[in-house]
Design brief:
Elements (H helix, E strand, L loop, with lengths): L1 H7 L3 H20 L10 H9 L8 H13 L7 E3 L13 E2 L7 E5 L2 E6 L21 E5 L2 E2 L5 H4 L1 E2 L4 E7 L5 E7 L8 H5 L8 H4 L13 E5 L4 E5 L7 H21 L3 E4 L8 H9 L6 E14 L2 E11 L10 E5 L6 H12 L3 E4 L7 E7 L5 E10 L15 E2 L4 H7 L1 H23 L2
Parallel strand pairs: 11-12, 12-15, 15-16, 16-19
Antiparallel strand pairs: 1-18, 2-7, 3-4, 5-6, 5-8, 8-9, 10-11, 13-14, 13-18, 17-18
């Protein structure tokens, strides 16, 4: 009788939230192939988080909890896309922490750092640090949930004026807590609430969908420099088949023009979060000197026979496509180069002898699965390894550059965000031009 009474008090909102939670829990338990690599007990962890679902009073509290569970996986391929209407709390539109004037974050040395604070609201650093060490702390947690780039879009949102407790790690490893309040005035409409001012870390950017993209033409840029051609590809994610075909045609035209110019090429994949694998492989084919083999290791292609589990590896050979670019190629990558973009970088490195320059890529080289949730949200995560011809996966490893050009917190502290970013950009291009010049001898 006691159990029946308790169950009858569960509200409609809580019932739906439990259904959403259980769908997420079961999808990860069943289809997430990297769970065995994680040092965690998913069943026990899910049980702990589930017990708090009924305590969530506002939509943002529930979604923070759900994203917090997913953040335990510490995987930037795991994300939640939540319909804007789901955030409404009695008609109140949420505000984002990064809408605060002066608040900026960046991905430096593979981790999230706060590079600027609102006036008068900066944290007090540990008193034993020097001036350089007392700037640009790493953002470790938000409201005690792990700060994972692909889930920041969820954790940054909340009730207008609601506090967000940030756990910061300073240069010597010291941890501190700092509380910022989200903007107190609500935006005028949902579109404003959905905009992002975060430097390259919006969830869509991590998924390969840059903000404020109007068409396929915005996803790439071709520049004719005096001694090289530059092809900057911002994303391989397109909203529909028409834009996909337009992007493919535009990239082909750019490569054709580069062949006509007969100069070395720099392909800039920094900040490219991936997207459609077919598009990236289409670019790769224009540079291959010989066929390139890749394999897809999908967990749902395995079956049990007696005491043995057999898995089907679907292999594919990527053939060169004429006309092939004949000159040397340098590829710029960084910690935000992910998924289809880093697979392109590895393909060019292995199959076109391209010189990779910059930072280790994100390590998100897995095929992606989408799971619709009962509330209209979408859960996304890597569902299978994509392997190179040597059987190596990029998942959690990334692509190593041939010539490292690092961004460091020290340099950002010395120069400030904009100057340090411009300097790093210049160093990347200088290194690429020098590498191309030497390789052409």
């Amino acid at each position: 009788m006691l159990v029946a009474t308790a169950c009858s008090t569960v509200s409609g909102d809580t019932k739906q939230r439990l259904a959403v939670f259980d769908t997420v829990r079961d999808a990860i338990a069943t289809d997430y192939p990297f769970l065995g690599r994680k040092a965690l007990d998913w069943a026990e962890l899910s049980k702990q988080y589930r017990s708090a679902v009924g305590l969530a009073k506002h939509p943002s509290e529930f979604y923070h909890l759900l994203a917090g569970l997913l953040a335990e996986l510490d995987d930037r391929h795991v994300s939640l896309e939540i319909p804007p209407d789901n955030w409404l709390d009695d008609g109140v539109v949420p505000r984002r922490l990064d809408e605060l004037d002066g608040f900026r974050i960046a991905f430096i040395e593979g981790r999230v750092h706060v590079t600027a604070w609102p006036d008068g609201r900066a944290p007090i650093p540990p008193d034993h640090l020097d001036a350089a060490g007392a700037r640009i702390p790493e953002l470790v947690e938000i409201d005690r949930y792990r700060a994972v780039p692909s889930l920041l879009d969820v954790h940054f949102r909340g009730t207008p004026g609601a506090p967000a407790a940030l756990t910061l790690r300073w240069r010597d490893g010291t941890l501190s807590r700092h509380v910022l309040a989200r903007p107190s005035t609500p935006p005028t409409h949902l579109a404003e609430a959905s905009s992002s001012r975060t430097s390259g870390l919006h969830a869509h950017a991590v998924l390969g969908i840059p903000s404020n993209v109007a068409s396929a033409a915005d996803l790439y840029e071709f520049v004719e420099e005096a001694d090289f051609s530059l092809l900057r590809i911002r994303s391989f994610a397109t909203p529909n088949d028409t834009e996909r075909d337009q992007l493919a045609a535009g990239l082909d035209r750019a490569i054709d023009r580069a062949i006509e110019r007969d100069e070395p090429m720099i392909i800039d994949l920094r900040g490219n979060g991936g997207g459609l694998l077919g598009l990236s492989l289409g670019v790769c084919r224009r540079f291959l000197t010989e066929p390139l083999a890749i394999a897809f290791d999908e967990p749902d292609r395995s079956w049990l026979l007696g005491l043995f589990t057999f898995e089907t590896l679907v292999s594919q050979t990527i053939e060169p496509r004429q006309p092939v670019f004949p000159r040397r190629v340098a590829v710029l990558v960084d910690a935000l180069t992910a998924s289809a973009a880093e697979l392109l970088a590895r393909g060019l490195q292995d199959g076109a002898h391209a010189i990779l320059i910059g930072e280790r890529s994100a390590g998100l080289g897995a095929s992606r699965k989408e799971v619709p949730l009962p509330d209209g949200s979408v859960l996304r995560f890597g569902a299978g390894d994509i392997l190179d011809s040597r059987g190596n996966t990029l998942q959690d490893r990334g692509v190593l550059p041939d010539i490292p050009v690092r961004r460091t917190t020290t340099r950002f502290a010395e120069l400030g965000w904009q100057r340090a970013q411009h300097e790093w950009n210049r160093r990347c291009y200088d290194a690429a031009r020098e590498a191309l010049r030497k390789s052409e001898r």
